[in-house]
Write a structure and sequence with these properties.
Layout: H1 2-25, H2 34-41, H3 43-71, E1 82-84, E2 87-89, H4 99-105, H5 108-139, H6 146-158, H7 161-171, H8 178-185, H9 197-225, H10 229-237, H11 242-253, H12 255-270, H13 273-279, H14 291-300, H15 306-333
Helix pairs in contact: 3-15, 5-9, 5-12, 6-9, 7-13, 9-12, 12-15, 14-15
Length: 338
């Protein structure tokens, strides 16, 4: 009897479940999707993030879309719409497709500027990381006046970029600069730091290293302090030399931090417009001009070529995106999560 009752009850339950499923299939209440659940459960977070999304879309998204569109036209100062007094002159530029990109990539100027930009970026980032790591390891030790040294070494990062550029431009002055004054005091001749292509390149690299080392130092110092001291103690007990401890403990322990700061440093240095523009103006001639300064010059000097400048900007963006993707893939192959 119990078995029969159980079967009847089970059958009734199955029929009820089937009827409920049928009702849902015919337009009954459905289970909310993941996006709807997230918005209903975390509506406050979405409300807080919404203004940031809107501002970012307005300040970054719209100029980016506009720039990509202009890069596909022949817009120049002569063909752009403008208002002179009460007269409104309409735009006369036309869509030309990828013509600007073809002109840029087939010109020797692009490859010349790209080569110097790569040299500039690699040299600066390598010096940033090497000097920053050395200073971080020094400050990670017990040292008298360590707080004072930290404050002193972080000052270049705290100084605004344009202020640093003007200070160094004065230091490099051929006639009144402090550097040449020190050389003359030592019995050596003055150097025209910003007058020769080679010395001008060395000069801007030195300034960028001076500005960028504090960031690397602070980031790597934080990474060093996160490595357990017990690892170094155990390695020292086992007889590991300082170089072996550095190679097998410090470098692997800093791998995650290093991958992040190297990527950020590469992007920032690749686009380091203020220092080069304010110190050398891209000169002498165009010896120190990198891709971003050339793009600026296309848009704001001479006959302003807005479409060409926009195409340069899009190419720079694509180069950085490709570099970041390749870098990310290389990290994944090494087992890093990024």
């Amino acid at each position: 009897m119990a078995t029969s009752t159980g079967r009847v009850t089970g059958t009734a339950r199955d029929r009820a479940a089937g009827a409920d499923d049928g009702a849902r299939g015919r337009g009954g209440p459905r289970k909310a999707g993941p996006f709807r659940r997230a918005t209903s459960q975390y509506w406050y977070a979405w409300a807080m993030v919404a203004p940031v999304i809107v501002v970012t879309a307005v300040l970054i998204g719209w100029p980016l879309v506009r720039g990509v569109y202009l890069s596909l036209t022949d817009a120049t100062e002569a063909t752009m719409g403008r208002t002179i007094g009460v007269n409104v002159i309409p735009s006369t530029y036309e869509f030309v497709g990828f013509g600007n990109y073809v002109d840029i990539l087939t010109s020797g100027v692009f490859w010349e500027k790209l080569a110097w930009t790569v040299i500039w970026t690699v040299a600066c980032v390598a010096l940033h990381y090497g000097i920053g790591l050395g200073l971080a390891m020094m400050l990670n030790r017990r040292l008298r006046f360590r707080s004072f040294y930290r404050l002193l070494l972080i000052l270049p990062w705290a100084i605004p970029g344009f202020v640093a550029a003007f200070i160094w431009r004065y230091l490099y002055n051929s006639d009144f600069g402090v550097i040449n004054a020190m050389l003359r005091a030592a019995g050596l001749g003055g150097v025209g730091w910003l007058d020769d292509p080679t010395t001008a390149k060395i000069a801007v690299i030195a300034v960028n290293v001076w500005v960028g080392v504090p960031f690397m130092m602070v980031a790597l110092l934080g990474g060093l302090q996160s490595i357990p001291a017990e690892l170094y103690e155990a390695a020292e007990v086992d007889g590991a030399t300082p170089m072996q401890r550095f190679r097998h403990i410090t470098i692997p322990g800093l791998r995650t931090v290093s991958s992040t700061v190297v990527l950020l440093g590469t992007i920032w240095t690749f686009n380091m417009f203020p220092l080069i523009f304010l110190i050398t103006g891209g000169g002498p001639g165009s010896a120190t001009e990198i891709l971003v300064t050339y793009a600026y010059r296309e848009a704001f000097t001479g006959i302003r070529n807005y479409s060409g400048s926009a195409a340069w900007g899009v190419i720079i963006l694509l180069l950085l995106v490709v570099m970041a993707l390749v870098y990310r893939r290389a990290l994944r192959r090494q087992g890093e999560v990024w």
